Amino acid sequence: MDMRSTLDAQRAAFQAELPVSAATRKDRLKRAAAMIRDHADAFCDALSEDFGHRSREQSMVTDIAASIAPMKHAIKHLDRWMRPERRPVTFPLGLLGGKGWIEYQPKGVVGVIAPWNFPVQLVMAPIANIFAAGNRAMVKSSEFTARTAALFEEVCPQYFAADELAFFSGGPEVGKAFAELPFDHLIFTGATGIGKHILHAAADNLTPVTLELGGKSPVIVGKGANVRQATERVALGKMMNAGQICLAPDYMLVPDDQEQAVVDGLKAAVSTMYPTLLANPDYTSIVNDRHHQRLQDWLADAKAKGATIETVNPANEDFGASNTRKMPLHIVRNATDDMTVMQEEIFGPILPVRRYSGGVDTAIAEVNRRDRPLGLYYFGNDDTERRRVLDRTISGGVTLNDVIFHITNEELPFGGVGPSGMGAYHGHDGFKTFSHAKAVYRQPKINVAKLAGIMPPYGKSTTASAKRQMK
């Protein structure tokens, strides 16, 4: 089936099925989890093939287990999420017997446009919320991870009819056509520039859109921070998936007198986790030649404009002689605003470290003069300073004394703000994102319109009623 006929078939099946029972939703969630669990090894193989090399253990954690976890969470909480939500009724209608509540209904067919960096998890986590809300789904996979996309198309029909869940792959033309379909909701995860095109494509159909984008997620090292702990945790977040994470720490802001300690800590942490890189099965490659060259060009740009670049290569391996796309961590010191690494989301193992002086307000000002990021990370033990960072910066989410971890909690909404995205999902918030909150009001037997003086012919009671409401 082509994309449009699949959409029509899904919408017809959805309409015929209403209302979508909790049992049906749980069944789809269980089948989705089984699809990933049963083919976990095959997905890990496909991911490694797509990347050139990708850590199998990392894939098991970040793509397989992280896909199944939101399904289990949704199954556990679904009955509670589906309950109508009572709302108070405006005085005096509540006293007269009026009732108000919200019913969360599925929207219909949801389109999912998935990225290449976590091409299993960033498909299945939204689907957990989409199925929990009672919807059906169509997925456009990334052309950069073609083997993983092909595997989804191969295994999905073993678990789902095409009018429940369907996968499509292809390049930009397919993506454009997919975004232009009249979905009942569309979620896109990817680059900010592409997100703008997605929003334009969806506009003609007035399709509601959730955008999970990226941006330059900063790390602020503040008062009383444990530098060894902070650098170890930043290094872990930066080196996972070779920095190809939308929430990866993008640059660090450190007090003047701690810069060297931070650089030394990063080097020590990386050397401990990855004593070698080229043949290390734990370390992932850059996804393709274009992205690898982009990162090399940005390093050359920084160096040409005066940056000092320190390469963390513990075993002194010859990356130039290697035919892999593995790339060591490059710490960029003295990075300035005219360098590309301080203008664009890096999405790779490059980490600018910038100094600040004059207290945390200087670091806050640095963050605030850039686009609002998807994530922000603060390390420090000063309550007043931490509160100031939280109050004076705006970001999609925050992790304190670590990086990235706020995305792992299904009870917290995940989403961006401004150029880093719009809308949120995960857990109950995701259930609400993909549901229509339908307001229902039940009028009492008494003629409320007449009692309130709003039934013609108007008179003194009408004027009195208006005055009461205007007080």
Automatic annotation (TrEMBL):
CDD domains in UniProt: ALDH_CALDH_CalB (cd07133)
Superkingdom of origin organism: Bacteria
SUPFAM superfamilies: ALDH-like
Alphabetically ordered keywords of this record: NAD, Oxidoreductase
InterPro entries: Ald_DH/histidinol_DH, Ald_DH_C, Ald_DH_CS_GLU, Ald_DH_N, Aldehyde_DH_dom, Aldehyde_DH_NAD(P)
Ranges for domain Aldehyde dehydrogenase: 3-440
A biological process from GO: aldehyde metabolic process
Listed GO CC annotations: cytoplasm
Alphabetized PROSITE patterns for the sequence: ALDEHYDE_DEHYDR_GLU
Family, as annotated: Belongs to the aldehyde dehydrogenase family.
Protein name: Aldehyde dehydrogenase
